[in-house]
Amino acid sequence: MITALTRTRRFSNIYMWWALALTLYGLMMFGPLRTLTDLAAVPPFDLRPMGYSFDDARDLMNALGQRGRDIYMYQQLVLDTFYPMALAVASVLTLRRFSDRAKANGHSRRVLLCKVAACVAITAAGFDYIENILIAAILIEPDAISSFLVTAASTATRVKSLATTFSLGTVTVLVIFSIAKATFHDFKPISWQQR
């Protein structure tokens, strides 16, 4: 009984964190990021997973103007303060669940994969926060941005994007594998002898 309640609570926590992460993602994508893209006619830093150059950053700052920079600072970066944490917690809780199940079934490689992906999810959140701090510095002094600052922000964006892709990809594959295993667990193909 207690085990069942613990499992239910753990599942509800996982669902709650995923709901929060997806809600924040939707608010950013259909809120400030869409507004910033419309204002500048080019994607903002957050929508450039492969990074950006000094000229890209300068052109974006000029295209956004003061209104766009304020939206970026006080809407997008505020939402992006909560999103990395929510995504990391949701990913880590999900990966822990899969790790516990794999450990119980003696799948040591899958346990290792889950642990690595969880560490990568936390790394992604860390680089997302570094990216946000550096973008804020660019927004505060758009006329005095340095090549070093933009390179650092761009690097943080690329590392965050790669880490997020790996951790979310791992979660997705494990979920699909789990669903497929549960669906076909009792499936027994008809043999030629049974026909």
What attributes characterize this protein structure?
5 helices, 195 residues, mainly alpha, 82% helix, disordered N terminus
Give an overview in words:
This protein has one domain (2-181). With 195 residues, it is mainly α. It is 82% helix and 0% strand. α1 (2-30) runs antiparallel to α3 (54-104), α2 runs antiparallel to α3 (54-104) and α3 (54-104) runs parallel beside α5. It is built from five helices and no strands. It has helices spanning 2-30, 32-40, 54-104, 108-140, 147-184.
Quick structural gist:
Helices cover 82% and strands 0% of the residues. By secondary structure, it is mainly alpha-helical.
Percent helix range: over 70%
Mass-distribution shape: elongated
Alpha carbon gyration radius: 21 Å
Determine the N-to-C terminus distance. Answer: 44 Å
Structural class: mainly alpha
Overall number of strands: 0
Number of domains: 1
Share of residues in strands: under 5%
Low-confidence stretches: 1-6
